[in-house]
Amino acid sequence: GATGEKRFIEPLQGVARSPRLCALPDDKTLADLSEALFDTRYLITENFCEGELPKSSKYYDLGAASNGGAGASWKIDYASAASFASIPLFTSLYRDRCVTFDAIYAWEAEPAAKDWWEPVPDEERAKIRFYNAPVEELGCPETLLGRHPRHGSFLRLLLATASVEDFVVVKVDIDGGPELAIVEAIAERPELARLVDELYFEYHFEFDFDFGWGGSNWDGAGRTVDTAMNLMHRLRQAGIRAHFWI
Q: What domain of life does the native source organism fall in (predicted)?
C-alpha cells in the first residue's frame, strides 16, 4: 500500500537487530546478549491510535511455530520477543496500536503440538486459518514472473484474499524455505506490493556474528549485509513498511 504519505519508521542498519546489540560492553553476559538480540522495542510500526482505522486488517504469518503451548500468556514483553510465539506477539503488538486483525493466515511446516490451539482465546480462534504444512513456491526466477505451484502458494493466496483497501501485515520467517523468493516477488511485482502495508523478514545472510542461524542455506549463496539492505530498501521504495525480524 503506497500512498505517498510520509511516515516515521526506524532506520535500516546492517546488524538487522536492535541497535542495542552494537552498544553492549565487552564484559557482556549471555543474558545481556540474548536480551539485545530479541529486543523489538526499537521497531516503529504503523499506529492507528490517532487517525482513521482501516476498514479491514489481515495478518499473514509464514512460520508460526508452536503458538505458545498450554498455559501460554498472550500478554507480551516486547523486550524479549523470542519468548513468545508470533501469532500472540503480533496480535498484541497491533492491538496496542488500535488494530484488531479480522483474519489471520498462519503456516508452520513442523508438526503442531496437540496443545497448539489451547492458548488461543475464543474470539481469535474464528479468525485463524492454520496450515500445518510448508509454504510452497517456485524458485526466484519463476516466482518473479508470476508463476506459482498448484497448491500451497502463499503468494497466490495473498492475491486471492487481500485487497488494496485492507491493512495487510506479513511476517516471513521460514528457515530454509522459499522466503527469499517470496519477499523478492513482493518487492518487484507491483500487484503484490500494493497489497502489503507492513512486512517483517528475518533475512539470513553471511555475517561475522552468530545470530543462531547456522549457515547451511546462505553461506556461499551471495547473501550478505549488502544484499539484505538492498532488498529492504527496495521494499520501502515500493511503499511497504519493511522491518528486519528476529
A: Eukaryota
